[in-house]
Amino acid sequence: MSRDAVAGGGAAGPQASSRRSSLRWALMFGNFVIGSGLMAAAGTLNDITRSLEVSVSVGGQLITAGAVAVCLGAPLLAGWAAGFDRRRLLALTLLWYAVGHALCAAMPSYETLLPVRAATLLGAAVFTPQAAAAMGLMAPADDRGAAITFIFLGWSLASVVGLPLSAWLGDTFGWRVAFVAIAGLAVVAAVWVAAVVPAGVRAPALSLDAWKRAISNPILMAIVAVTFLSGAGQFTLFSYFMPYARDALGASSDQAALLLAWFGACGLLGNVLVTRIVRRTGVDATATAAVALIALSLALWPLAAGLLGTALVLVPWALGCFSSNSVQQARLNGAAPALASALLALNTSAIYLGQAAGAASGGWLIAHSGYASLSPVGLAWLIAAIATSIWAARAVRRKPA
Questions:
Q1: pLDDT exceeding 90 applies to what percent of the chain?
Q2: Separation between Cα atoms, residue 22 and residue 193, nearest integer Å
Q3: Which of the chain's termini has less CB crowding within 10 Å, N or C?
Q4: Cα(356)–Cα(342) distance, rounded to whole angstroms?
Q5: Cα(26)–Cα(19) distance, rounded to whole angstroms?
């Protein structure tokens, strides 16, 4: 199916616009479910460690293992999925996610939960990059960047609603209930996507030459590296936010959930703002500014005093967190549209490789030196991300990828 046919035009403009709106909302809700499932381990970490009788640093490896699975799965599965009809692919991926979370809830021990959790998150390895690539195919050229950033509002909503809700469900009813709730939402998302995504949408096949062109381009790989470095910096601390709030801030379960909801609300605001300003400021400058906001929070983190101070310091981080991910997707799509499927898969891989590196380094730091060292190490990752982003932006201006 051609891009123009999907996007709609001519006399059918109003009807096509309504279809595109429904499509955006369905894919945004799909990303909400994907994000909520990915964050569920962090949100319920207190109950997981308590009920399965493992330490915080060991429990945090659920985040690492899942991130590694998505990191490896995104580029490998992108080639396998290239020829699939996008409606069928995205709907079946969400059903996989539903079944996987239901199975996770039934696992009797940490040792059995770990591999099932990793396999479940292969759904995220497919859905997020392929939804973005499909949106790039179906949106009009002048609206493509805004359309892609819109569907990433789902990740902000996952932080606003999904993460605090999973934290509350975990502490009130147990982590298994939270995982079952994710499974139910994934079924709803699968039905919605199947109903509104048009049939016959297929991305260009990913040849070995396309992968080589993407991976061998230093500018494109620098943009992908920004995603990795930013994720590593954030998840050095964010993976352990719930136990940090309990142990370092003395926060109750409700107070910690409110902090996460506050973070998510500010993150949603950041993503809404980025969809409005990205056309004016450009993707390169917007991405760099978003990462700089996250770095600002980690630089100020040691100065935060109590719950109120922490809530204030979280604001810049939240504003830049999800907006940076969405604008990075648009940045890559615009830099090399012909390689979008490969690049978005690699970028998704970088997101979770960063999460894995951050969660692993954070767990090691907690085990050896406690919570105080998390923010300085996270800040170092983010400074590297800012420098890389600035270099990539200058390189793109000199020689478009």
A1: 37
A2: 9
A3: N
A4: 21
A5: 11
Q: Is the pLDDT of residue 203 over 70?
A: no
- Summarised one tens digit per residue, pLDDT across range 321-380 is 878 887 888 888 778 877 877 787 788 788 878 888 898 888 899 888 888 889 999 999
Tell me what the mean pLDDT of segment 298-314 comes to: 91
Q: Are residues 74 and 346 in contact, defined by beta-carbon separation less than 8 angstroms?
A: yes
Q: How far is CA 272 from the centre of its chain?
A: 16
Q: What was the pLDDT predicted at 43?
A: 85
User: How does DSSP classify residue 139?
Assistant: S
Q: What is the assigned CATH class of domain 3-398?
A: mainly alpha
Which tokens go with 178?
A: 């939270």
- DSSP letter, residue 108: -
Residue 252: both structure tokens together: 């109750």
67 CB burial (10 A radius; 0-12, 13-18, 19+)? buried
Break the chain into its structural domains and give their ranges: 3-398
Report which of 172, 206, 241, 263 is spatially closest to residue 74, judged by C-alpha positions: 206
Largest separation between any pair of C-alpha atoms in the chain: 66
Amino acid at 399: K
Helices and strands, number each (H, E), in the chain = 20, 0
How far is the C-alpha of 229 from the C-alpha of 373, rounded, in Å?
Answer: 18
Q: Are 248 and 371 in contact (CB under 8 A)?
A: yes
Mean pLDDT of 80-84: 73
Q: Which of 6-10, 38-42, 107-111, 215-219 has the lowest mean pLDDT?
A: 6-10
For residue 108, the Cα-to-chain-centroid distance in whole angstroms is 28
Are the CB atoms for 294 and 230 separated by under 8 Å?
A: yes
Separation between Cα atoms, residue 315 and residue 308, nearest integer Å:
11
C-alpha to C-alpha distance for 297 and 320, rounded to whole angstroms: 10
DSSP 250: -
